[in-house]
Structure formats: C-alpha cells, structure tokens
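sanity check both lines:
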Amino acid sequence: GRTEATGWRGSNASHIRGEAATSARTTALLAYAADEHSHLLDIVRTIDGGPRLRRQIVQIDDKTWLVLDSLATPLTQPVDRLWTLAPHLVAEDDGSGDGVIATDASTSWRLEMHFLSQHPPAVRLLRGSLEPFGGWVMNGPRPTPSASYEVTQEPGSRWVATVFSLVPPGTKLGSTRPVMQYNAEDDWSVSVNAGPRAIAMQRRHDQLFIDDGGAGERHIGLMTRQPSRWRNATRFKKRWRARCVNSNAFSHISSIACG
C-alpha cells in the first residue's frame, strides 16, 4: 500500500486511471483572482505527449468552495480523484444520489459535498481499502481507516465539479443542490446556497462576476501569466495561506491547494 499511498491514490489530484506516479509532466499556474471575499486559482498539469488536466479552485465565500476539474479534449479513459475526510467525521449520503454530508459530532459542524458533471460521475465510498487503494489517513505513526469518496469522470466527459459547503451548528442544510453550467474551461457559472442566501458566480474568460445574494454584485479581473501583472502575487499568497490555516481544523479537504 505504500506505493499507492505516495502516488495519485494518496492525493486528491485528478489523474488518468492507471497513470504512473512517475509520469513525465509539467504544472503551471494559468491565472488567479482575489478580493476580500473570494479567491480563484487556475492550474494545469500537462502530461508529456498527452492530455492536459486542469483544476480551478474557487473559494466562493468563507464557507463555500468549488473545485472544477476539466479536460481540453475528452479522453477514452476514466479520470479519478479521491476526496478523503478526517477519520473522526461521520459521513452519509444526502439522499440526492450525488451528495454527501459529513458531521463532526464534537462540534456539530457539517460539511456538504456535491459532485456535478457533464455526465453523472460514478461515486464510490472507500474506507481502509487496499484494492482499490483509498480511505486511509496517517494518524501519528499508524494509518487509520477513514471515509474517502472516489469520484470518476467517465470516458467522454469533459468536466467534474465538487462543491464543498461548511454548515455551522444549528443551521439548516441547503434545500437546493448546486447548479453548474459549463461552456468552456474559462466560461462557466455556478449557483450555490450559502446559508440563508444564494450566491451565483460566473467566469467569463479573464473576468469573474459574483452575485452575493443581498450583498450585491462584485467583479474581479483575473491576473494571467503576463509577468507585468504579477505584482500582487505575494499578497495573494499570504491571503490564501491564511484561509488555508483556518480551514485545516475541519477536514483533510484543505489540501486541495494548501500544500
């Protein structure tokens, strides 16, 4: 199990099924956006002589995240990613067929996860599994079984999105599932329930538009890879790191981009 634990199956990165951990590849940050409430990172991994796997990580607000995995062109092989929860969380299906609720019994905080795709993704729960590998967390010197959700992008599907929502104690769960509209890798929109209000976010190429319910509309221009536009990179990195630290207490999903 050590080989799998230190490979793709030990991370939440999207990867082609059967892809070797030693595959030759390059990774690049394509763009980012940030204001006081929302953040976006746009990252691409290109396999030498092969496809591009792109991930956009969006902090919609203090309690809501979107992770959008996409392919420039559809593949004939499935693409997997595993979302592993902290061992003390109690996870159960939310009854919708594409959602999970994880509860921290000691605090009554809950985490909602919704899996969206061009075609319904195949979702499999693994816990302490060696074949296929998944559902393990290192707790001190010992590996500890934990809930891990393998989300598979079926052949031909261009994208899979995962929406994470933290629900404070005493707050009702959202009655409406997130809705994603995908036109292209840099042209999409998502609508989510964030407590008592709905938030809609749109990416239109190098622009990000946020309708924050009763708080009004906001607009953020994306910083792209042109060197002259990276002046705010250090400030953005510090701000992102601070938010990662705040998210670490709840679950292992904070490793989305906090490594």
Helices lie at 2-5, 233-247. The chain is about 5% helix and 50% strand. The CA atoms of residues 43 and 212 lie 25 Å apart.
